[in-house]
From TrEMBL:
Its EC number is 3.1.3.48. It comes from Arenimonas oryziterrae DSM 21050 = YC6267. It catalyses: O-phospho-L-tyrosyl-[protein] + H2O = L-tyrosyl-[protein] + phosphate. Keywords: Hydrolase. Belongs to the metallo-dependent hydrolases superfamily. CpsB/CapC family. Coiled coil: none annotated. This is protein-tyrosine-phosphatase.
Length: 265
């Protein structure tokens, strides 16, 4: 399997705090069946001012430590990129890294507030020749009121990445519901761990693959964790990738049922 979203680089963001934790995460990933991991620290203006040069240097250093420790995990680079007015310019200049230098990159929406003109921003990135892979929409607090946006962006050419643990309930019932719904509706391109630590957020991908297989079958589950991630790292054009499964969209639950399930408004 290939994990394209992992905060394993030590001391660079809110992920692994030190080398010991990073090595433990790498051992866990290999034991889980992951053989390639993209190191994707946050790029968040004003908080995590990472750039491609610094990330690549940190990846090379950690890869050397993995070799010395005999851990057979191959690393590549990327970033968990937040929306910014100069994002297209940052990618074009090489300051903001894509996944392995390809046309694909991770785009993390704000967690608690729906960004204005998010759909327009995504289409502008697509028009510039890049493919935003929208990370963990199932965990956003505003997904209920803006769910249709994600279907529109997918149909427009954007990609969706779910967190593997969302499908197994690691983040609670609410993200599990939305993860399963998006999967059932054929909106999900890849799964990734979004791992941040060895204890609370370990790099476990197989459990998500297995949970997905129960809903969409073994072939599509393999596409989620291997075929499409391989295609991303090979910079394959999106239209030549395995297509998303065509599934009818289920009716939205009634307000009363939603309240009974999750206690929400």
């Amino acid at each position: 399997m290939i994990d394209l979203h992992c905060h394993i680089l030590p001391g660079i963001d809110d992920g692994a705090p030190d080398l010991a934790v990073a090595l433990a995460m790498a051992r866990c990933a290999v034991a889980d069946g992951i053989h390639i991991a993209a190191c994707t620290p946050h790029i968040y203006p004003g908080l995590y001012e990472n750039d491609r040069a610094g990330i690549e240097a940190a990846v090379a250093q950690l890869q050397q430590h993995l070799r010395e420790a005999g851990i057979p995990l191959t690393l590549t680079y990327g970033a968990d990129t937040h929306l910014a007015p100069d994002l297209v310019a940052g990618i074009r200049s090489g300051r903001v890294p894509t996944l392995g230098g390809t046309r694909y990159f991770l785009l993390e929406p704000p967690h608690h507030v729906a960004p204005p003109r998010f759909e327009e921003s995504v289409f502008n990135l697509l028009a510039a020749g890049f493919v935003p892979v929208i990370t963990h929409p199932e965990r956003l607090t505003w997904i209920e009121s803006h769910y249709e946006i994600f279907g529109k962006t997918v149909h427009g050419g954007a990609w969706i990445q779910l967190t593997a643990g969302s499908l197994t309930g690691r983040f609670g019932r609410r993200p599990k519901y939305w993860a399963e719904r998006m999967l059932d509706e054929g909106l999900v391109h890849i799964l990734a761990t979004d791992s941040h630590h060895i204890d609370k957020r370990p790099p476990l991908l197989a459990e998500g693959r297995d949970a997905a297989a129960q809903r969409v079958g073994d072939v599509e589950a393999t596409h989620l964790v291997l075929t499409r991630p391989q295609g991303i790292l090979a910079n394959v054009a999106p239209e030549t990738m395995p297509p998303l499964p065509a599934r009818p969209a289920p009716a939205a639950p009634s307000k009363g049922l939603w309240q009974r399930w999750f206690g929400g408004p």
